[in-house]
Description:
By secondary structure, this protein is α/β, with parallel strands linked by helices. The chain folds into two domains: 3-20 and 52-96 and 325-564, Aminopeptidase (3-Layer(aba) Sandwich); 115-312, Glucose Oxidase, domain 1. The chain is 32% helix and 22% strand. It has helices at 3-22, 26-30, 45-53, 56-66, 79-94, 211-220, 232-235, 239-246, 269-278, 283-290, 360-378, 401-408, 446-456, 476-481, 500-513, 529-547, 561-564, and strands spanning 98-99, 107-117, 122-127, 133-134, 141-144, 151-160, 166-167, 172-173, 184-188, 225-230, 249-253, 263-268, 298-324, 335-341, 346-347, 356-357, 387-393, 417-422, 434-436, 459-460, 486-488, 490-491. The protein has a 15-stranded mixed β-sheet that branches. Strand 19 (434-436), helix 13 and strand 20 (459-460) form a beta-alpha-beta unit. The longest helix is centred in the first third of the chain and has 20 residues, at 3-22. The chain is globular.
Amino acid sequence: MRKSALISLLPILATGLLFAQTARTPAERSAKAKSTVPRITSLPPAAEQAMAAVDPERIRAHVKFLASDLLEGRGTGARGGDIAAEYIATQLESYGLKPAGDGGTYMQKVPMVGIATQDTSTFSLDPEKGQPLVLRNHADYVAMDETTATQSEIDAPILWMGYGIDAPEFNWNDYKGVDVKGKLLLMMVNEPPSDDPKYFGGKALTYYGRWTYKFEEAARMGAAGVMLIHKTDMASYGWDVVRNSWGGERSYLRDDPAPKLKLASWIQLEIARKLAQACGMNLDEMMAAAQKPGFKAIALPARVNAHIVSKVRPFDVNNVLAKLTGSDPKLREQAVFFSAHYDHLGMVPGMPGDNIYNGAQDNATGCGIVLEMARVLAAAKMQPKRSFYFAFVTAEEQGLRGSEFLGKHPPVPAKEICLDLNYDDVPPLGVPQEVNVTGAERTTFYPIVERTAKEFGLAIVPDSQPGAGHYYRSDHFSMARAGVPAFSIDEGNKYQGHDREWGVQQAKEFVDKHYHQPSDEYRPDMDFRGDAVMARFGIALGWLAGNQPGEVGWQLGDEFAKGRQ
């Protein structure tokens, strides 16, 4: 059989075989008992029937296949990622959904370029006095030349930029009065600390604190590069996450006109500390001073010297898009989106031990949820007034690239997309008693979210790690930047049969030991009843948004409101 034919047939075989296998085990048969589907105000019987039809074992089957070693970690631009896209498209077609991609297909081509920093690269920090600090790739630093040059030389003075933020609405500008062109900017992730929700979001991180903003702003200002200091509590994850995410190929949208850095890099905290000492300074004092208003950038008596060798690979990957046409002749031109990313980190050839980053929880779970939602909604006896779109995006782990492309090239105009409900990293831990919908409060849809959560018996809880900036770290953010009201749906930490502390410990263990690690694998003891609850909750919200008289909007003054206008 030809390879292309095998790949086309594989998803069809996988679903039937895996579902049959997963349904037979005793532990999983007991988990098949459906949770009681609540009576939701304003929902027709067809919607309730769709919610009742959600099967946690079907979600399990999707997760088991997508997270299998066969798919090699679903890397962006890799064979396993392409198989995942083909599998998802085949499922959507089998449900009877219409293709919403390019040329009457389920695939939306996303042109990308991969950049992999080679081990022959060199990187040193050279103070005016003392010996150069020669850094080790992956151990001391990770770096990328975003310009797509195969070789580049960087010999640039270093500026201490504090947070590297220009936020006029908060009267904060680290770039004020300093020329950064051609220079290397040393800065922190995160943002100035605050307890005031109106000042840098209080304890919640704004986009100014994200590493993506730091690189984007520095490139706009003409800097040669950025060195971000990694500190676990500020980044909200350890160095191993940075190393695993940046140690291989990084993908960018091809032909993106935005300015790029010759050196986009992270360094370990202790390396930054040694650099400060070599310059006669104290890093802790420097970081403390940078947290106060009126901070001024400082030129360090040191330079960076780097020779970056890159392997550059243009390639095309796909978002997977399907449509369920609405019932109203006019409102069907508007849309409600359900989204999830199907990619993960792929595999590392030659790495000792387990070298496949399977991405079971992150994010085969989201894909399984949205696929099951698509199945039951396609089978519903009637549809809401607006159309439903199911979007499975690529390259989330590369910096939300697939959803960025979707936001810029949606199948319907962004202004006609009423709402995007996103699923990312939904723990299969049992029946939740809480739901997290961070960002929903930014929208005019929030009263409906509150009412529906109450009818589901779910307490709405805030993000348990507001400083991690989760709203800016998943694909709903790309849609929000395009003006689309958007947020992710996830579980809280309180589960049936357990106290909240148990859920907190489960979340901590995942972040500490499994997030962006090869150990994020499918296990037979995973309990997908909670993922099914989140699917039903999303169906209810999507249906209500699809039927409401007016469109969903942003709250007045929200940072994304201008994009909607």
